[in-house]
From TrEMBL:
Belongs to the kynureninase family. The modification N6-(pyridoxal phosphate)lysine is found at K218. Keywords: Hydrolase, Pyridine nucleotide biosynthesis, Pyridoxal phosphate. The keyword Hydrolase applies. Its EC number is 3.7.1.3. GO terms for molecular function: kynureninase activity; pyridoxal phosphate binding. Catalyzes the cleavage of L-kynurenine (L-Kyn) and L-3-hydroxykynurenine (L-3OHKyn) into anthranilic acid (AA) and 3-hydroxyanthranilic acid (3-OHAA), respectively. GO terms for cellular component: cytoplasm. Homodimer. This is Kynureninase. InterPro entries: Kynureninase, PyrdxlP-dep_Trfase, PyrdxlP-dep_Trfase_major, PyrdxlP-dep_Trfase_small. Pathway: Cofactor biosynthesis; NAD(+) biosynthesis; quinolinate from L-kynurenine: step 2/3; Amino-acid degradation; L-kynurenine degradation; L-alanine and anthranilate from L-kynurenine: step 1/1.
Amino acid sequence: MTPEALDAADVLAPFRQRFTLPAETIYLDGNSLGALPRDTAARMAEAVRSEWGEGLIRSWNDAGWVDAPGRIGDKIARLIGAGPGEVIACDSTSVNVFKALTGALSLAPERRVILSERGNFPTDVYMMQGIAALGGGQVEARLVEPGALEDAIDQTVAVVLVTQVHYKTGRVRDMAGLTRRAHEAGATIVWDLSHSAGAIPVDLAGAGPDFAVGCGYKYLNGGPGAPAFLYVARRHQNRVMPALSGWFGHADPFAFDDTYRPAEGVGRFLVGTPSVLGLAALEVGVDLFLEADMATVRAKSLSLSGLFIERMAPLCAGHGFRLASPENPAERGSQVSYSHPEGYAIMRALIARGVIGDFRAPDIVRFGFTPLYTSHADVAAAVAVLAEVMETGAWDRPEYRSRAAVT
């Protein structure tokens, strides 16, 4: 089918009108920062003018600010196959990785190893290393090659930290299988869902992991720096004393006790005062996504990425691109990556022409497909622009080689 025919049959097409998308722009970077839902600006204005401006401090109660982390967490839970009271929306992904890893370590005090793969997202690895340093030699941060991860789960491993959809390649890990392997070895497991939530079906209840984390500003469209989320399996919630024992995680924050007593349930993993404005924006994005059927989202994602790979074949043959994502659709998330020695300059040239993807060192150009607002026509047009950039050598200009702070 042609891109136009595929778009005509697309039941998700009406969602595109629910987002603010700049004219003459093809946005293929929603896997890094989601587009702006049209309702977000009005919701933010309401939160600022009415709730903050008029309600003032009363809005913690009257506007439901104090309940927002749990309320939005329960909504995210529906997107990732978790149950009510198992997800909390709060803090950043990095902070939640710290909470999950330290919580997991406390469940296995006789073990000392945090295990992950080389090439995992840097913040995950850095948090492992930071915890090891904080432990004064009592904790080891161990990295192995991706293909050796499963076999490396031995009796010394306390917790395995793994990303379900790899940020650079889009490779999808077998959540159920790897979780089962960790539990058989007596280890716990933490899953990073930053490139999963809103991109592929996730079944935490079925797979049975111990902890999971994810961010709110990619496929959930919560805005730059949106609050992240933390999943804690119900069976662990009241067994873990949070290492970050902040006042909002206290059993009775407004008793102002000198001694920390953790709240019951996932609420004990809150730390400081919730980011009310960030949560307001995030809730709009999550509510919008809850209107879509995840199976339909996944089917369109695979259709978009399949068309992209098909159209890229001549550029691989003639211009040196190499597919860095899995060829098997079942093993691929909602993004496609290619390696090219001039990847940075090529991406800068594309962005200058209104096709926005991103670059990941050392040589990866990355394209994200967000089915709520990306069309098959977008995909076809993006590859056509890339072909023009390569055939004319337009990428080979000094201004495209100059590195920006954010790539």
